[in-house]
Specification:
Pnp Oxidase, Chain A, 8 strands, about 280 residues, about 25% strand, alpha+beta, about 25% helix
Length: about 280
Amino acid sequence: MPSQTLEYPKQPYSKVNRYDDRASYSLETIHHIINTSPVLHVSFNAPDSPFPTILPMIGQMGSFSRPSADTGDVLDLYLHGYVSSQIMNLARGSWGRDGDGDENNKEPGLPLSVAATHVDGLVLSLTPNSHSYNYRSAVVFGRAVPVTDAAEKLWAMELITNSVVRDRWRHTRVPPTPAEMQSTAVLRVAVAAGSAKIRTGMPGGDSRADVGDPALVARVWTGVVPLHPVAEEPLPAPGNGVAQVPAYLTEYVADFNDHAKKTALEAATTLMKPKLSAK
């Protein structure tokens, strides 16, 4: 853990404007949201499309040069995908030159925006306009280049595999075969900026007039429905030859469920400063 809290620089494209009191630029906060998200949405501009491309991908923050680095440290984002996919080809083509066609910008790599979101609760208020979610969201911006070093690529694949299920890598047939390594590509994204936005607590956006209306308050239920993912009991595959579910997997399922429920309940009960509108 760094001796001080590190933050990403606030850039025009990364700064939170609406409800900026919910914003965080802390590396630890942003990296934790990303590393606990099962799916990342990766956006980039493809030269043959009039619209931005968005892909659901698997990824993880980490440091190959400092494997024991904490989430509060400066980290790269590693993304895993098929070797011939469009994003991999574009990143490969941008390696060693400007990735966005701007001759004045000499930074190598394909420009990416990556988003991660967790929903922790349904916030139900007196009026439809004040309904919300309790959520944790993060967006990072950076440039992606292909990982060409064999050791770093193998390390990144292990990092990402263990983000799916803790300690899964060493409980599989490893290392991957040369054919598997050749068909898989890994991108390393050097993050230039990022921000997080988090909401917790009970409803707080209703007007003074509505809150002060006894009949309305008596008629409309308000509060939070905590929301969290649940991992069910593992189901064996038809070809599974292991009689008992391994201990590392049952422990992971139990820990996952306990943490997810605790996070949702804490989000519902963590106080936020109420914002009463004048309407």
